[in-house]
Design brief:
Structural class: mainly beta
CATH class of the largest domain: Mainly Beta
Shape: elongated
CATH superfamily of the largest domain: Galactose-binding domain-like
Helix content: under 10%
Number of domains: 2
CATH topology of the largest domain: Jelly Rolls
Number of strands: 15
Order of helices and strands: HHEEEEHEEEEEEEEEEE
Number of helices: 3
């Protein structure tokens, strides 16, 4: 352009180019472009990008209707081909700070100039103040028939059908002519029941029972001939297992129990009675 200025030409419209056919484009390119420019649509110059995107650069048509060129790099091409799913990104550097730990040991001036010893953290060991003790004692699991003593009009068996715990329960079938008194007894122990306060048992009856009808006997003599305890089982609904908790009161005389039994205090006629899992407990 400096040559045109020296010739007194200040407008391109004042420039007349006399060129051979097909050479006008070449002459225009030399005049209109600078180093690094390219021509598109035979008239518009575009500068090459010195640095663009990631990696190598590629020139392509933007397809905007005017055939304008645009630049692509490798990342743009990958995004176009994969629907912008895969992109090359530069992840931030993960820096894990290292804690700066230091131990300062101070001098102990209480008795001299010697270096004090850092305190030691002691982890206390767990201690058990009192060992746990068993809070109940199994007196009879009732897996066998109560047959130490059986009244003449009572049939005592182990019932594997009607039971609460285990494989069987102790069943006593009471006939119409059964007398008031002991129905059946079972030899146990000997058991020291002095540390315990309550007797627990599962009871099932074919008829409803009221307080004062049936009781459980505990004796330090065979066949409960002189029981130390005669414990009323209370009200029992018909055909339903009920766990009873019976207060034994003073148990100081129960140091050697060897027999347990059932006693009918009021004639109940014909009925069946089942007992399962009898235990002595310290709590109700």
């Amino acid at each position: 352009m400096s040559l045109l200025t020296k010739a007194g030409i200040t407008k391109l419209s004042e420039l007349i180019i006399d060129a051979a056919p097909g050479k006008a484009k070449d002459i225009a390119e030399l005049i209109l472009t600078a180093q690094g420019d390219i021509l598109y649509r035979n008239a518009v110059a575009a500068r090459l990008a010195a640095a663009y995107g990631v990696g190598y650069n590629f020139l392509h048509a933007l397809n905007t209707g005017v055939d304008k060129p645009g630049w692509l790099d490798i990342q743009d091409i990958i995004a176009f081909m994969t629907g912008a799913v895969n992109r090359m990104i530069a992840l931030p550097t993960l820096v894990i700070p290292v804690p700066d730990l230091s131990l300062v040991v101070a001098e102990d001036h209480s008795g001299g100039g010697h270096v004090g010893v850092p305190p030691t953290l002691a982890i206390p060991l767990p201690t058990v103040d009192k060992a746990a003790e068993l809070s109940w004692l199994l007196i009879d699991d009732c897996e066998a028939a109560w047959d130490e003593y059986v009244q003449a009009n009572v049939t005592s068996t182990a019932d594997a059908v009607t039971k609460k715990i285990g494989a069987a329960s102790a069943k006593m079938a009471v006939a119409d002519l059964a007398a008031v008194g002991r129905l059946a007894t079972h030899d146990i122990g000997p058991f020291d029941l002095t540390p315990y306060r309550y007797l627990r048992a599962w009871i099932y009856s074919s008829i409803g029972l009221s307080s004062g009808d049936i009781s459980i006997l505990l004796d330090s003599h065979a066949q409960c001939v002189s029981p130390e305890k005669d414990l009323d089982i209370g009200d029992i609904p018909a055909t339903d297992w009920t766990q009873v908790t019976l207060d034994m009161g003073d148990t100081s005389g129960l140091g050697a129990i060897i027999s347990i039994g059932t006693d009918m205090d009021i004639d109940k006629g014909i009925f069946d009675l089942w007992i399962d899992q009898v235990r002595a407990t310290k709590g109700p």
